[in-house]
Amino acid sequence: MSDPLRPRASLRTAVVWDVLQDALDRRVKVTGRDALDVLDTGGGSGNFAVPVARLGHRVTVVDPSPNALFALERRAAEAGVADRVQGVQGDAHGLFDVVERGGYDVVLCHGVLEYVDDPAEGVRNVVAALRGEGVLSLLAAGLGGAVLARALAGHFKEAKQALQDPNGRWGESDPVPHRFTAEQLTALVEEAGLRVGAVHGVRVFADLVPGVLVDTEPGALEALLKLEAAVAETPAFHSVATQLHVLGETRGTAGA
Ligand SMILES: C[S@@+](CC[C@H](N)C(=O)[O-])C[C@H]1O[C@@H](n2cnc3c(N)ncnc32)[C@H](O)[C@@H]1O
């Protein structure tokens, strides 16, 4: 899903996209259906929904923001997938007021759990949107990445505050209401009844490296992408990743 016009944008999405694409491919094989039903909770303007629809899947995006849904509609039309992308105004709390319970092969919840009032309820709801066999792609802000970033920016008190705060917040003006450790996220996924298929650390170095190094050094972006892909799978680095990605699978899902 890398954008040739915005190569650095691929640093934010490459690891998640690779894992997600692989999970979608495996669901296609297992179900024997080329077009899966995908729900993108808090899908916003379609960073993931539109590329997923371009693979041929039907995507429903639920998001509380009318502006995001408007941007989604325009983006889907530009990509030629308007017939496969449906935007619905709603949120994770009232998910089943707007979409069908148990109606989806794959559910995405990317960058949303941070903002829901009750993350455990949010995960239970997105899991309840899955069919008997299905896959959850959960991406959320990592605690350790925020501590590291505040410390490297010289905000040592804020770094310590984030480390000790039950929600991983570095202060009153922190715009992110919740951050998570890998253990917290995997526990939420398991408590909602799924088994954890994989955990990846996302943006371990990407946000820390000065942009000028990546933009001016020949081959640096490609090398950094490869490094991110390698550390994503290395548990020791999960504790310092900006985001954590958890793939959850319904129990008994064959080749999820
Ligand atoms: C950081 S953006 C992520 C957008 C998209 N998922 C992505 O990965 O690019 C967070 C999105 O979550 C939406 N959001 C905020 N609170 C939500 C809630 N309680 N339920 C569902 N979506 C929510 C916002 O409107 C916004 O579009």
What is the topology?
Layout: H1 10-31, E1 37-41, H2 49-54, E2 58-63, H3 66-78, E3 85-89, H4 95-98, E4 104-110, H5 119-128, E5 130-141, H6 143-152, H7 156-164, H8 182-191, E6 194-202, H9 211-216, H10 220-232, H11 235-238, E7 243-250
Parallel strand pairs: 1-2, 1-4, 2-3, 4-5
Antiparallel strand pairs: 5-7, 6-7
Helix pairs in contact: 1-10, 6-7
Describe the protein in words.
With 256 residues, the chain is of the alpha/beta class. 42% of the residues lie in helices and 20% in strands. The chain is built from eleven helices and seven strands. The protein has helices at residues 10-31, 49-54, 66-78, 95-98, 119-128, 143-152, 156-164, 182-191, 211-216, 220-232, 235-238; strands at 37-41, 58-63, 85-89, 104-110, 130-141, 194-202, 243-250. A seven-stranded mixed beta sheet has the order 3-2-1-4-5-7-6, with helices on both faces. Strand 1, helix 2 and strand 2 form a beta-alpha-beta unit. Helix 6 (143-152) runs antiparallel to helix 7. The longest helix has 22 residues, at 10-31. The radius of gyration is 18 Å and the shape is globular. It binds S-adenosylmethionine. The site of S-adenosylmethionine (SAM) has 18 residues, from loops. Residues 41-44, 47-48, 63-65, 68, 91-93, 110-112, 115-116 line the site of S-adenosylmethionine (SAM).
